[in-house]
Amino acid sequence: MTDLHRSIAPLRQALGTVLSGRPEAIELLLLGVLSGGHVLLEDVPGVGKTTLARALAQCFRLKCTRVQFTPDLLPSDILGASVLDPRDGSFRFHPGPVFTNILLADELNRASPRTQSALLEAMNEAQTTLDGTTHTLPSPFLVLATQNPLDSAGTHPLPEAQLDRFTLRFSIGYPSDEAELAMLMARQTRDPLDAVSPVADAEGLVAMQSAVREITVKPAVARYLQRITAETRRHPDLSLGASPRATLRLFRVAQARAFLAGRGFVTPDDVKAVAVPTLAHRLALSPQSRFGGRSTSAVVLSIVERVDVPV
Ligand SMILES: Nc1ncnc2c1ncn2[C@@H]1O[C@H](COP(=O)(O)OP(=O)(O)OP(=O)(O)O)[C@@H](O)[C@H]1O
Ligand SMILES: [Mg+2]
After folding, report:
1. Which residues form the domain of 14?
2. How far apart, in whole angstroms, are the C-alpha atoms of residue 284 and residue 153?
3. Which atom of ligand 1 sits closest to the CA of residue 20?
4. Of 162, 182, 211, at which residue does a domain stop?
5. What angle do CA 144, 110, 299 make, to 5 degrees?
6. Rg of the chain (C-alpha set)
7. For residue 173, what is the enclosing H or E element?
8. How far is the CA of 43 from the centre of ligand 2 (A)?
9. Does pTM surpass 0.90?
């Protein structure tokens, strides 16, 4: 644990050089990566999404592939295809861009539902199936998808089953005035992204992910966490509550938060701190509360406030 934890500070530092003034976004990204999950970044253009994904890949010497999702993108453009080899008349599999460590899926909601769903198996099983043959994806495998919250014309909103496969959803947000100024100075002659050097490698990341799974969760804390997701299923403002998959992910993200803090056990505060980014995107508001202007984040917050914290 201590040995693995040692690379956390340099990791935070390296990501901080490319993303000024948004430490919360860096923490959330690290939670997503360490919990072995996929991340949905909901943000406007130009706030550093691609830069952050590239920096993360460099930190762990990972392969990072970017795909711009458009309405005409086909499933085979993501997964790959069997191509006839004219020399011997046999079919050979040509892997698509999904065969990578970090798949940056830009504007995922612009693709047709058919192409979006091509990612479903990859995200849940870390494998793809084509013509009855299963191909295993590299490990670690992380999808970092983006969508623009303002520009919804011509988009296909991600279906619930797709959203449920994202461990965390958050936005990066604008830097403060001072942080933006610091960004200008740091970038006057060079791009800080070029200076990001590795702090670990893919095996190091996999080792950290398994250390996260070893973090102790006391039965009382597990019950607290389960109560929170169960409450979403009976909440009058929600028409769709959290799935058992969501409960599992909340457990894992809380463990990852304890790991980041260098603690060997999960506290109720860990659960509280990650409940909104882990749960809110998986929930659907009932029609009345949608018109009332309520958000699923606000509902999760109210549940977290209400459920008794174990002592
Ligand atoms: N908070 C920040 N700190 C430092 N640099 C930033 C920050 N936000 C954006 N930048 C810089 O702005 C530029 C644009 O960022 P980037 O390409 O990562 O944005 P993006 O969110 O991927 O945009 P798009 O949605 O258009 O793809 C990059 O050079 C990046 O380094
Ligand atoms: Mg980008």
Report:
1. 1-211
2. 21
3. 3
4. 211
5. 65
6. 20
7. none
8. 10
9. yes
The CATH code of the domain that includes 45 is: 3.40.50.300
* 61 CA to centre of ligand 1 in angstroms: 21
Q: Do 266 and 121 share a structural domain?
A: no
Residue that terminates a domain, selected from 186, 211, 236: 211
CATH classification at residue 224 = 1.10.8.80
Distances (CA, A) of 308 to 223, 244, 246, 268, 303: 10, 20, 20, 10, 10
- Residue 19 and residue 26 in contact, taking contact as beta carbons nearer than 8 Å: yes
Give the tens place of pLDDT for each residue, 136-163: 999 999 999 999 888 778 888 888 888 9
The C-alpha atoms of residue 296 and residue 134 are separated, in whole angstroms, by 37
Contacts of range 269-273, beta carbons closer than 8 Å, 24 or more positions apart: 271/221, 271/224, 271/225, 271/228, 272/304
- Regions of the chain with pLDDT less than 70: 1-2
Q: Which atom of ligand 1 is nearest to the CA of 192?
A: 31
Residues 105 and 66 in one domain: yes
Q: Per the structure, how many domains does the chain have? A: 2
